[in-house]
Structures are given as C-alpha cells and as structure tokens.
Amino acid sequence: MPVFISDTELNDLGGDASIIVEKAEGFIRELQEQLETCNARADAASITAEQSCALLEQKYISLSGQFTQIENEKTQLAAALDKRATELAQAQAQAHKLELRAVILFLGE
Fold first, then answer.
1. What average pLDDT does the chain have?
2. SS3 for 6?
3. Could you tell me if residue 5 is left (phi over 0), alpha (psi between -120 and 50 degrees) or otherwise beta?
4. Sorting pLDDT into bands at 50, 70 and 90, what band is 108?
5. Quick check: 1 pLDDT over 60?
6. Name one GO biological process term (predicted).
7. What is the pLDDT of residues 48-58, one digit of tens each?
8. 19 contacts 13 by C-beta, under 8 angstroms
9. How far apart are CA 61 and CA 82, in angstroms?
10. Of 5, 38, 49, 96, whose CB is crowded by the most CB atoms within 10 A?
C-alpha cells in the first residue's frame, strides 16, 4: 500500500494510474517543501549559532585583554606597595634611631 493514498481511495479510483500518479506527485511536492523548510530552518539556526559564537569570541578576547591589563595593574600595585612598605620600615627605623638619640642626649645632660 502506498503511503500517499489509502486502500479505500485506491479501490475507489479503480486503478486509474493518472490520478494515482497525480496524488503521488502532490505527496512528493509536499515532502520536498517540508524538506526545503527544514533545510532553511537548519541554515538559519546554523547562521545564528555562528553569529553567537563570533560574539562570544569577541567578548572572550575583550575580557581576556581586560584581565591581562588588570593583572599588570595588580603586579604594579603590589610592587608599589612593597616599595612603600620598605620606605615605611626605613622611616620607622630612622624615627626609632632619632628617639634613641634624643633619649641619650636627654640622659647625658
């Protein structure tokens, strides 16, 4: 039994081949239209996916650049902090020496 026509219809047509061929061709056209629609949707989905991927790649590159910049700033700030900590320690040591000198001078009088 053909998929495009029921047994009852086939019997009613009495074996008229031209009508059966016409129905088969109509069925085939319908299937081709469905296939074209499906292909068009798949193409559209593929294009959308490619565009989304491209946007994500651009965002990744942008964020990666920002991350590298922030990492560099962090390194610079850490170096500046270490320098300031060293300067503070030196200043505190100098202040301590001056306090000791002042005490020695005070006691020496």
1. 92
2. coil
3. beta
4. confident
5. no
6. mRNA export from nucleus
7. 999 999 999 99
8. yes
9. 32
10. 5
The answer to whether the Cα torsion of 51, 56, 59, 64 is positive or negative is negative
Backbone angles phi, psi at 16, to 5 degrees: -70, 105
CA 22 to chain centre: 51
- Contacting residues for 56 by C-beta, under 8 A, at least 6 apart: none
Q: For tokens 């610079």, what's the residue?
A: 76
- Give the pair of three-digit tokens for residue 53: 């991927």
Question: Which amino acid does the sequence have at 30?
Answer: E
How many residues are given for the chain? Answer: 109
Residue 106 identity: F
Element (H, E) at 65: helix 17-108
For residue 15, give the DSSP letter.
Answer: T
DSSP state of 16: -
Token pair of 66 as six digits: 């920002």
